[in-house]
Amino acid sequence: MKNTEKHQQWVFYKDVPVQKLASGVERKVLAFCDEMMCVEHKFTKGQAGDLHSHPHTQITYVASGEFEFQIGDEKRIVKTGDTLLKENGVTHGCVCIESGSLIDFFNPMREDFIK
């Protein structure tokens, strides 16, 4: 199994290792460079992404499933095909209502995801 590396032009999903997070959520770090990073997070029903903030702007695309997201003080239900913007420093988190996956894009890249 190969690891994804910075500036890798071709990233094949089957070659990307799964990182199992403490919460049980699974992460795959896909393509990235210093300015941008693409990451998949897989959730099962009931799993949560705890409220947090970071100095990265994040766009999330709901690839599958259903989630209750909180961004700042607002909560909404999002489903497959919906997109969310979380600007740097804004508190956000989610609870998975129906198992699914999120595709996250970060600017700049998340150094903490590759350590």
Any overview of this molecule?
This protein has no helices and 8 strands. It is mostly beta strands. Helix content is 0%, strand content 54%. The chain is globular and about 35 Å long. A hairpin with a 4-residue loop joins strand 2 and strand 3 (37-43). Strands 1, 2, 3, 4, 5, 6, 7 and 8 form an 8-stranded antiparallel β-sheet that branches. It has strands at residues 19-20, 26-32, 37-43, 48-52, 57-71, 74-79, 83-86, 92-107.
Summarize the SSE layout with pairings:
Blueprint: E1 19-20, E2 26-32, E3 37-43, E4 48-52, E5 57-71, E6 74-79, E7 83-86, E8 92-107
Antiparallel strand pairs: 1-2, 2-3, 3-8, 4-8, 5-6, 5-7, 5-8
Brief overview, please?
With 115 residues, this protein is an all-beta fold. Helices cover 0% and strands 54% of the residues.
Tell me what portion of residues adopts beta-strand conformation.
over 45%
The rough form would be described as: globular
H/E element sequence: EEEEEEEE
Q: Which ranges are low-confidence, i.e. pLDDT below 50, for 5 or more consecutive residues?
A: none
Structural Rg: 14 Å
How many E-type strands? 8
Major beta sheet, specifics? 8 strands, antiparallel
Helix percent reads under 10%
By secondary-structure content and strand pairing, the structural class works out as mainly beta
How widely separated are the two ends?
17 Å
How many H/I helices? 0
Q: Residue-averaged pLDDT, rounded? A: 95
